[in-house]
């Protein structure tokens, strides 16, 4: 069983898209193994986005993810990391195909509705960060 970390970002929560987005993951056959609505502490945001620390948009990234509650979850299933990435679509909503979450609901790269782990190793790091109590 593989696990991945998914965040419905503040734009998705503000636009009341949580139910719609969760329904897509569940309909695909993934299991919700952990779920919480939370205001993101700045320190957690900075750790989560540590690999982007040198990018010019790092400050904007942290400001945005801390701008309102996010719905954080662990999704589980066979090939969960790749399956969620496919359901989410390309990072840039302009490149995400219609039918994907970002293709259907996103307008801009900085407010792209969802985040998901990009690889199994990243998922392990991110789950430990967001759900330190999580055990398989
Ligand atoms: P996410 O999957 O949360 O991980 C890194 C985020 O950086 C990505 O989604 C985008 O929302 C954001 N991002 C990538 N490129 C840019 C950019 N050029 N300007 C602002 N944000 C960006």
TrEMBL record:
Pfam families: NDK (PF00334). It comes from the Bacteria. It catalyses: a 2'-deoxyribonucleoside 5'-diphosphate + ATP = a 2'-deoxyribonucleoside 5'-triphosphate + ADP; a ribonucleoside 5'-diphosphate + ATP = a ribonucleoside 5'-triphosphate + ADP. CDD domains: NDPk_I. Its main location: cytoplasm. The active site is at residue 115. Its cofactor is Mg(2+). GO terms for molecular function: nucleoside diphosphate kinase activity. Residues 1-136 form the Nucleoside diphosphate kinase-like domain. Its EC number is 2.7.4.6. SMART domains: NDK (SM00562). ATP binds at residues 9, 57, 85, 91, 102, 112. Coiled coil: none annotated. Belongs to the NDK family. Major role in the synthesis of nucleoside triphosphates other than ATP. The ATP gamma phosphate is transferred to the NDP beta phosphate via a ping-pong mechanism, using a phosphorylated active-site intermediate. HAMAP family: NDP_kinase. This is Nucleoside diphosphate kinase. It comes from Veillonella magna.
